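Summarise this fold before class:
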Amino acid sequence: MEETKEIVEAETTTTEETVENNSEEVVEKTFTQEEVNNIVKERLAKAQKGIPSKEELTKYNEWKESQKTQEDKYNDLLKEKGEKESTINTLKMENEVLKAGITDPDDIEFIVYKVGKMDGDFSDNLKEYLTNNPKYVKRQETKATGTELKTTSVAKEDGVIAILKQKHPDLFED
C-alpha cells in the first residue's frame, strides 16, 4: 500500500512541475507587417500551385471540345434543339392563354401548367378548363379598386334607350 501511495505522490508532483514549466514558456510573439505579408504570400503560392491559369483553362476546354466524337456533338445539338422546342411550345401556350383574356402572370403560368398536362389539344383543353373554372375569367373583370364590374343585360328596352334609338338609329346599328 505504501508503494502505491508513493507512486501517486510522485505523479502528482511531476504534473505540477509540468504545469509550472508550461506556463512560463507561453510567450506571445508579434509580427511586423512585412513578416505577415511574406506569410500570406507563401500560403497563397501553396494554395494556387495546383490551379491552372486562364490561358491553360481555355486551352484545356478547346482540347476537350476537339476530343468529342461526332455522336457527342450530335447529341449536344439534339439536346439544344429539344430545349428550344420546349421553350417555343410554352410560349405558344402562354400566347393562347393571353388571347383567352387572362392577363395575370400567376394565372397564366398556372393555367399553362395545368392545361399543358392534360391529354389532347391544348386549345380545346383550355376552352374546357376556362368554362369549368370561370374564376380566372371573372378575375379579369375587376377594376383596380377590387370591385367586380357588373354587366347587365337589358331584356326590355328602357324608355330612354327607345327614344334614343328613334332619334339616332345610326348609334344602335348591330
Observations:
- The first helix runs from residue 2 to 25.
- Helices lie at 2-25, 33-48, 54-66, 70-99, 105-116, 122-132, 135-139, 159-167.
